[in-house]
Amino acid sequence: MRQPPASSRTGGASGMLTANGAKVKAGALVRPDTVEVGDSFTYVVTVVVPANARVEWPAIQDTAAVVVMREPVTVIDEGTKLGARRERVEYTLTAWDVGSLPLGMPDAVVRYGQTTLRVPLGDAKVFVRSVLPGDSTQHVPKPARDLFERMVPWWQRWWPALLVLVAIGMLWRLWRQRVRARTLAARAPGLDAYEHAVHEFDRLDRVGLADAGEAGRYVAIALDVMRLYLVQRVSGALRSLTSDEIIEVLANDARIPHGRVASLLADVDGIKFAARPVSPSRARELAAAARGIVEEIEQRERARLAAEEAARQAAAAAAAREQQDAEERARRASRAPRGPRSGAGAS
């Protein structure tokens, strides 16, 4: 076991102090000189001063120091002999650290008439040994483990895989939509947009989804046929656009019945995305509205094409008449008699 150094066994005031004829002897003792943390020990200081001298004993005021006072100081007057008075004081202290610790005691003050002597008490030390067992194996303990194993919910372990599955599902859906669009465009080769739409409407009616309990699906397919027709007829209209976006694209097209298209899209969106129930009769009305919009747009488109064709033909006829008039004027000018040349007939 570690032993205290010799300097910690005794210390503090010792020897003789002299000033202006006043002699002061002092001695100090720490008992026991080796303690454990929290144990009390005694610091004894004895002084021999002139009979009429007064001794002022200090105290440790800092309660947060490593050595603190446990009890008030005890002063014992041991009597006077041969003009000198012997006085002893006992401090009951406690140490809160290990090793060789200085007591940190302030100086005592001896007052004799006009003379003041200071007796140093701060050099005393006490040795405080550790109460921990010695470790000769140099073993390094493992870090502390948690009290309980952390329970991770299953969704925190599997959410990356779920995200991957959702992404794959979205990509698969987009691929199916693109394949379906290509399939719809290739089902009736050689047909224009209107003929293809009429073909799909007729085919949808023959399937009879509304009577088979699939009224919502029946309406959704009818709207897809109308949207495909709009995509083929209107520049900038895409199948991937939302209802609000496609209405914005169609806003400046005079062929579109905007109010009917907006109303139909709102009704069908409620059925497709909000799971709004729809009866078979209402489903037929919505499909008929989609077909009516296609027919009305087609009529306006054909009227526009007919007007453009009539204007083109009128322009061509006017150009032909202008060409004929120019040719007639040229022929007349070529048949007109020419006047006599200057100088002819004088021979």
What would you note in describing this structure?
This protein is α+β, with helices and mostly antiparallel strands. Among the domains are: 6-129, Immunoglobulin-like (Sandwich); 190-306, Four Helix Bundle (Hemerythrin (Met), subunit A) (Up-down Bundle), CATH 1.20.120. It has six helices and twelve strands. It has helices at residues 154-186, 193-207, 215-233, 243-249, 258-273, 280-335; strands at residues 15-19, 22-31, 34-36, 40-50, 54-56, 67-69, 74-81, 84-95, 99-102, 108-112, 115-119, 125-129. Strands 1, 2, 4, 6, 7 and 8 form a six-stranded antiparallel β-sheet that branches. Strands 3-12-9 form a three-stranded mixed β-sheet, with no helix packed on it. Helix 2 (193-207) runs antiparallel to helix 6 and helix 3 (215-233) runs parallel beside helix 6 (280-335). Mean pLDDT is 82; it is low at 1-11 and 343-347.
